[in-house]
Amino acid sequence: MKAVLNILVRTLLxxxxxxxxxxxLWLIFxxxxxxDPKALGWAPSSSExxxxxxxxxxxxxxxxxxxxxxDLVEKQAALDIARRVKARLENAGVQVRMTREDDxxxxxxxxxxxxxxxxxxxxxxxxLNTSAGNDAPADGIETFFTCSxxxxxxxxxxxxxxxxxxxxxxxxxxxxxAEVIQRIVCSRTGAExxxxxxxxxxxxxxxxxxxxxxxxxxxTDAVEAARLKRDDYRDRLAAGIADGxxxxxxxxxxxxxxxxxxxxxxxxxxxxxxxxxx
Length: 278
Ligand SMILES: [Zn+2]
Known about the structure:
Blueprint: H1 2-30, E1 53-58, E2 68-69, E3 72-73, H2 74-91, E4 95-98, H3 108-118, E5 122-129, E6 141-145, H4 151-160, E7 168-171, H5 173-189, E8 193-198, H6 202-205, E9 211-218, H7 222-228, H8 231-254, E10 260-263, H9 272-275
Parallel strand pairs: 1-4, 1-5, 5-9, 6-8
Antiparallel strand pairs: 2-3, 6-9, 7-10
Helix pairs in contact: 2-8, 5-8
The structure holds zinc ion.
């Protein structure tokens, strides 16, 4: 009897996980562009036949060590987690480039340029968080995105996505990527879910592809710092981030214009010739 119950419970759990997965995918597809792209003369470029390339950006490096607490140094932990994300993505057939492979300094603009030059499908910057001084003690994971890109970046987005000139562009793809990574990484790690937040960090403000910055946990929290030092926890963090990226790429490959919100070009005021009667 106990064995039968065991099997029943396991089956229910398996179906529950499947339903949750399908629901997540449905949520991704539900966030669609609000203007019909065809009506604006937009034919989204197809990435068919090309293996997607993802740029992983381990924060800080060289003389910029980032923050440090509880024997953790941000630049080292970020690089180690990034290597694990890279390995998982490559195992899944995704091409990966890192902005830095070792302990070297790289300016923020250069990190964005790596993704732009490679025409990456996604950009993920990895950091670790701190709360100090007058901040309330904090723990957990949060993911940042921005919908407002620099002017030069908007130009690149137009060029890469075949968007006609003068058509307004709002880029919500980073938000989509942030939401799916945040959801999966928190469920994989059990960390406090601090949500997704919009902020114009340079590395995501200047990247033309969907881009996010993941704060993988608070080094200043003794309990979270102890977890962040463990190999198995770093593996779970990396698995959550990699699975989030893959879910995003999958949804994006089916609908390349997903998340790019277009608005009609501003019309010129009607000339007097047109308004005046015969
Ligand atoms: Zn940082």
